Backbone:
């Protein structure tokens, strides 16, 4: 595997010749547009196949996998264009393995809403250990606000992906109400009712556990929140179910702010089976332009987390999006526009911008001028920035990494993940 940064004068075909690989594969792996246009500074993932199989009449992915001692999920991960295809035409070339094989096995999670595009969901599932469906809520009577996600769960299971249902302080109308959290954390009878009702829903839907996403909890409920997570874990483990808790990005135990104070890393790390570090949103919709997940900031959070939580419990949060800010930035006025990482590159190509790379933040960005003459800056993620985050996962022996979120396609990223790690699948029908 190699990451190549496009230089002036490069074309897909000149890059393919340079590395001795298929131009078709570069186009597919990097989701390039039909006109093959590139932006200077764009990063491309170059993969080097070791064994390629040409499909013969009557063969199936299962028979091909058996022949080479692999499995269908690995074939999908090596060849994402095959995902969702009902019939593989004779003559199709399939990569069985690449020259460099990953040595480490990691778990990977991905958050989603129920309205995700089906093709986008399918493109992610072979690479996920857990699909986390957002967002379940609870009523004042302790009943669960549920979702129409049965088909999604069935699809996840078809790809060997376990499912967690994500609980937050969401109302029936889909809005958040942090005030509901107080009763959940202080009334043990109500809390037990919510947990028991959750277990009933989880078992009914054949999910594998619970994700707890409770944010902006008043600091006075720090211990109560951890006790709730521990209570949920004790109830769920009786049924072989897991509890996964999302943690705000802290760098010290006494960090001030409504987002941080109730998230006690030590207590919650002890209470839950796994934790998810929300290591993103330094650059955010209402804030000044900057990288969404600058590497030094991500490292700070992880370094602190490792002093409080066993590394085997930690998922490192990975952002799958970027932001477009109009300049000059005005606090309280400017609102960035969210965009996908593929869309960001396509925007750079369409406006003729060079993509730059911040060596401190380890993140790509570019400037452009819109049709009204306004100047913009876009920060996003690419395989260079994600490679740095995946290396943190590897170097620190973490359980794995997780995406917020998988709503936008990013096949280049999944192929990078696949080249670095063997992805663990825990669900079996």
Residues:
């Amino acid at each position: 595997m190699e990451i190549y940064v496009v230089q002036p004068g490069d074309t897909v075909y000149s890059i393919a010749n340079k590395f001795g690989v298929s131009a078709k594969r570069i186009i597919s792996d990097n989701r390039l547009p039909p006109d093959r246009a590139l932006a200077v500074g764009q990063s491309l993932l170059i993969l080097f196949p070791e064994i390629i199989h040409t499909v013969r009449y009557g063969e199936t992915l299962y028979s091909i996998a058996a022949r080479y001692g692999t499995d269908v999920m690995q074939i999908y991960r090596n060849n994402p264009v095959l995902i969702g295809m009902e019939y593989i035409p004779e003559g199709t070339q399939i990569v069985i393995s690449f020259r460099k094989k990953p040595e480490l096995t990691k778990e990977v999670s991905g958050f989603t809403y129920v309205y995700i595009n089906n093709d986008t969901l399918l493109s992610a599932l072979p690479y996920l250990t857990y699909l986390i469906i957002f967002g379940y809520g609870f009523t004042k009577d302790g009943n669960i606000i549920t979702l129409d996600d049965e088909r999604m769960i069935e699809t996840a299971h078809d790809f060997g992906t376990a499912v967690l249902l994500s609980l937050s302080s969401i109302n029936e109308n889909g809005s958040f109400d942090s005030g509901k959290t107080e009763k959940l954390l202080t009334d043990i009878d109500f809390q037990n009712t919510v947990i028991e009702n959750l277990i009933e829903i989880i078992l009914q839907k054949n999910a594998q556990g619970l994700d707890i996403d409770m944010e902006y909890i008043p600091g006075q409920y720090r211990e109560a929140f951890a006790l709730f997570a521990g209570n949920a874990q004790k109830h769920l483990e009786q049924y072989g179910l897991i509890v996964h808790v999302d943690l705000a990005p802290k760098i010290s135990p006494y960090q001030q702010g409504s987002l941080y104070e109730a998230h006690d890393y030590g207590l919650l790390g002890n209470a839950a089976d796994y934790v998810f570090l929300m290591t993103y949103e330094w650059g955010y919709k209402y804030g000044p332009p900057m990288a969404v997940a600058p590497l030094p900031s991500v490292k700070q959070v992880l370094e602190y987390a490792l002093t409080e939580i066993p590394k085997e419990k930690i998922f490192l949060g990975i952002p799958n999006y970027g932001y477009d800010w109009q300049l000059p930035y005005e606090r309280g006025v400017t609102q960035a526009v969210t965009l996908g990482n593929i869309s960001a590159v396509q925007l750079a190509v369409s406006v003729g911008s060079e993509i730059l790379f911040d060596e401190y933040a380890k993140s790509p960005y570019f400037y452009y001028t819109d049709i009204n003459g306004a100047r913009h800056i876009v920060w996003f993620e690419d395989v260079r920035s994600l490679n740095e985050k995946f290396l943190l996962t590897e170097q620190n022996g973490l359980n794995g990494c997780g995406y917020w979120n998988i709503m936008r396609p990013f096949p280049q990223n999944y192929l990078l993940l696949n080249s670095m790690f063997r992805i663990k699948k825990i669900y079996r029908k």
Q: What stands out?
A: The longest helix spans residues 188-204. The mean pLDDT is 96. The radius of gyration is 22 Å. The chain has three domains: 2-98, 104-320+382-423, 326-376.
